[in-house]
From TrEMBL:
Organism (species): Algoriphagus halophilus
SUPFAM superfamilies for the chain: FMT C-terminal domain-like, Formyltransferase
Highest classification ranks of the organism: Bacteria, Pseudomonadati, Bacteroidota, Cytophagia, Cytophagales
Coiled coil spans: none
Key word Protease present: no
Keyword Flavoprotein: no
Source organism superkingdom: Bacteria
An MF annotation (GO) of this entry: methionyl-tRNA formyltransferase activity
InterPro entries: Formyl_trans_C, Formyl_transf_N, Formyl_transf_N_sf, Formyl_transferase-like_C_sf
Formyl transferase N-terminal domain boundaries: 2-161
Listed name of the protein: Methionyl-tRNA formyltransferase
Residues in Formyl transferase C-terminal domain copies: 195-284
PANTHER family in the cross-refs: METHIONYL-TRNA FORMYLTRANSFERASE, METHIONYL-TRNA FORMYLTRANSFERASE, MITOCHONDRIAL
Key words of the record: Transferase
A Pfam family of this chain: Formyl_trans_N
């Protein structure tokens, strides 16, 4: 089987490597010049002697002509942010299959993993669909549900999905997985990329598990969940639930305990506590213990 990949993402590398060992990977379509080029991906492809074809909207007719000469069986789009027109996907014998890390059409949009983690979903569904001229629609080919580990951050989940996916797709191609194909209706209200407001912790409203989910969904792609401390913006990259035996009257977002050995503990609106493990401020990533050693005190507040 001849395959051409469409990708700008390192997440596609395990799939490219897997299929390179079994099928013929004719090449990869990516953005090879600024903006939106991925130098690590391009260097990997060069090291594997896989041809790379530059995606340029103004040169799609020439790209279509070039790809048609290879008589490729199927295209696989995986982490590719450009709309692929019919003039290109129609030249593939089996069309182009898009890999989407979210159930369709519910989690249509450019970053389904963020919303799955932020919504505290227990399962992420990898959807593989034959594309048409609309975003995240077409014909659903197969789904692979993958459980989400408790407390799993975005980067770890994405990496795990990327590694587990190739063998699952190959099992489908080999006929070992049966699935009833069905049309995907276009989601007219797809989930957009998170805004700064979406990424900001609301200590007055969000429960401890909601804050933890937001922190996990923001790490590392968005640099952590946003809050403020002493009037300055900071980003929280990792938290964990904690039991705290403390006396006093505290408002949500208050630091109830700070110690260089144990770190910083914050009260949430449901009267549960989170330990701040890793955070970023002024361009520096530090631990909660380190911040406590710098003189943080109880009754100081986050988010003000």
């Amino acid at each position: 089987m001849k395959i051409i990949f469409f990708t700008q993402s390192n997440w596609c590398i395990p799939t490219i490597q897997h299929f390179k060992n079994i099928h013929e990977v004719v090449g990869v379509v990516s953005r090879t010049d600024q903006p939106n080029s991925n130098d690590f991906l391009i260097e990997y492809l060069k090291g594997e002697n896989i041809p790379v074809f530059n995606w340029e909207n103004s040169e799609l007719e020439a790209l279509s002509s070039k790809l048609s000469d290879f008589q490729v069986d199927v295209g696989i789009s995986f982490g590719f942010s450009y709309k692929i027109p019919a003039s290109i996907f129609e030249i593939f014998n089996e069309g182009i299959l898009n890999v989407h890390f979210g159930k369709l059409p519910e989690f249509a949009g450019p970053d389904p993993l963020f919303w799955a983690i932020q919504n505290e979903e227990k399962v992420v569904t990898i959807s593989v669909h034959k594309i048409n001229e609309k975003w995240d629609s077409g014909e659903l080919i197969v789904e692979f549900p993958i459980p989400v580990f408790p407390g799993e951050p975005y980067g770890l989940l994405a990496s795990r999905l990327s590694v587990s996916f190739p063998s699952k797709l190959e099992s489908y191609f080999a006929g070992q997985i049966q699935f009833d194909k069905k049309p995907i209706e276009e989601n007219l209200k797809p989930k957009s990329k998170p805004t700064e407001e979406n990424l900001t912790i609301d200590w007055k409203k969000q429960r401890a598990d909601e804050v933890e989910a937001l922190v996990n969904a923001s790490n590392p792609k968005y640099g952590g969940a946003i809050t403020t401390f002493r009037g300055n913006p900071i980003k929280i990259l990792e938290v964990s639930p904690a039991d705290v035996n403390i006396t006093g009257i505290f408002a949500p977002g208050s630091i109830v305990y700070a110690d260089p050995n144990y770190g910083i503990f914050v009260l949430c609106t449901d009267m549960k506590y989170l330990r701040i493990n890793i955070l970023q401020l002024e361009g520096t990533i530090i631990s909660g213990q380190k911040l406590a050693a710098m003189g943080v005190k109880s009754y100081e507040k986050l988010g003000v």
